[in-house]
Amino acid sequence: MKKRLRTLKVGSDEYLYSTEGIGTGYISKAVEGGDKSIFVIRIFKDKYSKYALLVFFCVLDDYCIGNPLNSGVSLYNDLLRKEVRVNLNRPLFVRMALDYGLEQGWNPIEGSLELDGLALLVREGYDIQKLLPKKA
User: Fold this and answer.
1) What percent of the chain clears pLDDT 70, i.e. is strictly above it?
2) Contact 38, 27 (CB under 8 A)
3) Does residue 1 fall inside a structural domain?
């Protein structure tokens, strides 16, 4: 059985995190442009789980693999000028979400915060067009 909570150490601070994909069964199936799914990164300090940072990635649901950010998808990064495999289960992206949350004012021992993960990917230079529904 896979451990649900993993550890991320940043300097002397230690954070716990989990990643989870929520399929279309939990949200409206008739969303404009097709089905959507949500991937959530949840980060908190030990003993302060009620003050979690929640980063939501709402993207177009793939019929075969579900949320593409859960299994990995190649996205072009304008800053690096190359395609990068984006799998939100990797610690690199969890750390990116943690840094983003701290920059947005999240205090891990005083309050929770919910953020849009797609805005984070855009800020980091990723082209997210293939994750969004096509416009008619």
Assistant:
1) 85
2) yes
3) no
